[in-house]
Amino acid sequence: MMSKTELLSAIILAGGQSSRMGQDKALIPLQGIPLLRRVSEVALHCASEVYVVTPWPERYQNLLPNACRLLQEVPLPGQTEPHGPLVGFAQGLAPVKTDWVLLLACDLPQLQVNVLQNWATQLEKTDKNVIALLPRHAKGWEPLCGFYRRQCLPILFDFINEGGRSFQSWLAQHPVQELMIQDTRILFNCNTPADLERLASYQ
Ligand SMILES: Nc1nc2c(ncn2[C@@H]2O[C@H](COP(=O)(O)OP(=O)(O)OP(=O)(O)O)[C@@H](O)[C@H]2O)c(=O)[nH]1
Ligand SMILES: [Mg+2]
User: Fold this and answer.
1) 107 is an annotated ligand-binding site residue
2) 141/110 Cα distance (integer angstroms)
3) Which atom of ligand 1 is least distant from the CA of 189?
4) ipTM of the complex
5) How far is the CA of 144 from the centre of ligand 2 (A)?
């Protein structure tokens, strides 16, 4: 099994509106631990650097492990509306030094260190031309629980500068490799109060 690797950084996105949940998902405690902290702890076991990208660093600074780096997300010039996860990702990718980055949403309560470490062992075998290694579902890629090459940053900025905001549209323009996964429960993300109840009944 691969241990925490020097080849990998992690970016956690924590800047969504949580409109379906009705309260900030990142702060919701599960077994006493806020969701964002749980995801951060998993990421720290898998990656040498962990960045949390958010417009509200002060909201999270006291709940994160010290080893995580908070990155203040900034609005795009001339825009005031929330810009979404693709722009958050681009801003998080800017300081990354490793060849690969693990991108995670903050609302993934079922992540498991050993499973992510096992996924990471596939990075070395990934074709040179692919920009990302991601799980797939019926409607497209699963963009917020998978791996990206740092080198995708210039093409990502180009896409954003042309007004693109959709992960699916961006990914459709470039080679992406499917990450084969055995158990899709790891991808369960908690978007609504009903999702939270379902989660309580699993545990
Ligand atoms: N940094 C950053 N993260 C974002 C942004 N928009 C969404 N995210 C994150 O992307 C992940 C997936 O977002 P969703 O599950 O759609 O959550 P959301 O946008 O907060 O929720 P809804 O308002 O209910 O759609 C979560 O970790 C969000 O925090 C953004 O503008 N900036
Ligand atoms: Mg979600």
Assistant:
1) yes
2) 19
3) 15
4) 0.98
5) 9
